[in-house]
Design a protein that fits this description.
Shape of chain A: globular
Distance between the termini of chain A: 63 Å
Oligomer: heterodimer
Largest sheet of chain A: none
CATH architecture of one domain in chain A: Up-down Bundle
Number of helices of chain A: 7
Number of helices of chain B: 19
CATH superfamily of one domain in chain A: NADH-ubiquinone/plastoquinone oxidoreductase chain 6, subunit NuoJ
Structural class of chain A: mainly alpha
CATH topology of one domain in chain A: Four Helix Bundle (Hemerythrin (Met), subunit A)
Strand content of chain A: under 5%
Order of helices and strands of chain B: HHEEHHHHHHHHHHHHHHHHH
Largest interface: A-B, 52 and 65 residues
Number of strands of chain B: 2
Largest sheet of chain B: 2 strands, antiparallel
Number of domains of chain B: 1
Radius of gyration of chain B: 22 Å
Number of strands of chain A: 0
Order of helices and strands of chain A: HHHHHHH
Shape of chain B: globular
CATH class of one domain in chain A: Mainly Alpha
Amino acid sequence: MPIGIFMFLAAFAIIAGFGVIMQRNPVHCVLALALVLIDLGVLFMGLDAVTLGFLQIIVYVGAIMVLFLFVIWLLNIQADPGAGRHLGLKLFGSIAAAALAAEFAAIIVHAPKIREIRTLPADFGTVAALARSLFSDYLVAFEVTSVLLLAAIVGAIALARKVSAPLVLVTPALSRDVSTPASSASDPAAHRKSA
Amino acid sequence: MNQFTLAAVNFAWLPILPLIAVTLGAMVIMLVGPGIDDEDSAGLGLIALMTVLAAFVLTLFTLGENTLSFGGALALDDYSGFFELVILVATAVTIGMSLDYVADERIAGAEYYSLILFAALGMMLMATAGDLIIIFLGLETMSIAVYALVGFLRRDPRSSEAALKYFLLGAFSTGFLLYGIALVYGATGTIRLDPVRAAVATDMASNPLLLMGLGMMLIGFGFKVAAVPFHMWTPDAYEGAPTPVTAFMAVGVKVAAFAGFLRIFLVHLGPVSAQWSAVLWVLAVLTMSVGNLIALVQSNIKRMLAYSAIAHAGYIILGMAAASSHQAGGAILYYLLGYSFTTLGAFAVVIALERAGEARDRISDFRGLARTHPGLAAAMAIFMLSLAGVPPLAGFVGKFYLFSAALNAGLVWLVIIAALNSAISVYYYTRVIVEMYAREGNEIDVKRIGARPALLLSIVAGVAGTVLIGIFPQPYMGASASAFAAAAGRPALKTTAMLR
């Protein structure tokens, strides 16, 4: 990929990245994020990882970003009215981010230069090459990822499921602590009570 | 065009049978679970328990193997076997504690037990990982399952708060770990651990990419083992979680995180230990001191044990700061073994006091327990003494091995600080004992322990482990040392084909 195009895409990603954090309207933030991800996908394609580039756009922009938008609309999230609040925290965050960026810049400058430039195999970036890699070198990782997603689904369902019928509390005669409202109110965190 | 042959990959099926067994068990529970009411979930728990036992036996068969399976993705040696056994015991004891608890609290059993097994799978993967991707995936499988488990007490706002806090900070820390892995990959050109060691052994000590990656991975693991200053989530998550899950976090998650942490840092980044051992020195001092000092003022037993778990992570990091000496490695494994049994037992006693819908988790709830329930009180006393490091229990012997290994490595000041910390910790551990034995009791009605055989067995297992490992340390110490040597001694392979 010509260095000029790379520079353009990289700069565009950074500008779009600023768009993600600078907008007030959450929908605009998500659209800016989609822009970043499309840009990255194009970068991947320019670096010969064509399949990965398409997957990036299809999965992230086509599925995940749309999901983000649905969530924003479903929850009816409005533009943040209190943009001037938490200035101290924002200042601290900016300083920390700037320090991290400076550190990374220093590291990249001081990192040893790449000594050998390997030529890519002829089929690099094709679907076949990606599949071969996934089902040989990374077979375990590939399979474990599916178990990971399964665990995430089970966890999400368990937490989103309706709470079953409320628990019948122990009767006051049996329990010294919930016998008087005063004692339980004095230490509300100490005892688990169902509403 | 490259010819694709399966022969290029070393498929060693036998050593991964324990992993497959645990996965299958989780799926069976998911399939039969929906037909079972929440009150009768003990049957699902028994399926989970049998799965864990099967995996335990299968793991015993694989001991003595020393292979890199799946092209180096899994490192199956005595090190992974040792940690798999500890993790499976912790899982089994956790399930044993859960049987009645889950039914009493009307927790959704199918989801609960399958997530416990998924978490166990993630932990075992961290112990067996031979490359950085598997470490990451194992950590994520474990973490995501545990995030959900923490929030399982749906009626208790503390539980939801704990789950959210743990999830947000955990996801944040995972980002650090992943960034670190990416940088190490950038510096060394490989994600397989053996070639990473070969690469860092050459000329990497001053490569800023590697150092940055190393630091980021340190932060990621620091969160998972609850090292100060990355410990903020620990007390809230431990307090809010269902108590068996708290025990699982304090033992399973911690042991698994240390399994990955030790293998990556002590073994595979050992050649550049000069670059990170000073950081661990500071981390150890902070973790021990902050953990012990804040534990002094806790009135909630789960929070107290949370800070105690932080302090114990500090002792283990002290062992890691003793760099890659084999003696220190074996001592750390032994310490983790003793810590696991003791902590599991202590949480089992806490569960024994609880009633449905009511957490008796204040230290004052233990008042006078020795009069009403002498057995429970005696068990709790043994666990507290072991955690404090009183001979001849497991905690003492572990500390003895750990501190002497650190002394041999020349870390005199660190050991002095650690000894002072141990002395501080005696105060808050004995406070529980004083409450149980010396104070007048407020008669609490504990559900008869004899009616809960699984919980009773969990406590007995904790006592037996704590006492036996302490009184007869030699076989366990030998196993720990040889397990660590198995990971450290494997000849580093020079190359693997990453892109063919």
